[in-house]
Amino acid sequence: MRSVRSAIRYAQALLGLAKEQGSLDAVKADMELILMSLNQNSELRVLMQSPVIRAEKKDVILTEIFNGKVEKMSMRFLQLLVKKHREMYVVEIAQSFINLWRDEMGIKKVHISSAQALSEVQRASMIAWMMKWTDSKVELDETVNPDLIGGFVIRADDKQLDASISNRLNNLKRSFDDNLYIAEF
Asked: What domains sit in the chain, N to C, each tagged with a CATH number?
């Protein structure tokens, strides 16, 4: 829990600085690159979380990987995290920054699972509908889940809409089971 609060504080500080410097979108892109790099490279992630590896070595490695690929502010921020021994929270900080950026821009991340990939027309229609449903701009995250049989499941924050065939079949089965149980008495 402490690490989450710490990550949010660091992310808020970076957000404030990026706003002040007018490089909010560039730093957001940097945080996405850093997050993607650490998520795709388990060795790098383990290295960042290792208390055995010295901070100087981590600083050199991060500089070799990200120098010239991210803004100077983002690079200095990574170096500050290493200096303050917070490099093990880089993933949480980057994710917190992206979430704070979305809040700042009035964007909701919406996840949709569908039985088949959405066509462009369906995607545009769903985005328009979700903008009304969430009352904000929408960043769509899509997955295909054949287990749904048909339809879709949408999640945004604490809201969920399950319009899948599998959900309807499960509801129908529960209804039959309830009716059989009542009929036995």
From this structure: 2-103 (1.10.520.20), 107-184 (no CATH)
State both tokens at 108. Answer: 């909701």
Q: How far is CA 24 from the centre of its chain?
A: 18
Cβ burial, residue 74 (10 Å; 0-12/13-18/19+)? buried
Give the residue carrying structure tokens 């981590």. Answer: 58
User: What sections of the chain are H helices per DSSP?
Assistant: 2-21, 24-40, 42-49, 55-66, 72-83, 90-105, 120-134, 165-184
Whole-angstrom distance, CA of residue 165 vs CA of residue 167: 5
pLDDT tens string for the chain (185 positions)?
Answer: 567 899 999 999 999 999 999 999 999 999 999 999 999 999 999 999 999 999 999 999 999 999 999 999 999 999 999 999 999 999 999 999 999 999 999 999 999 999 999 999 999 999 999 999 889 999 999 999 999 999 999 999 888 999 999 999 999 988 887 776 565 55
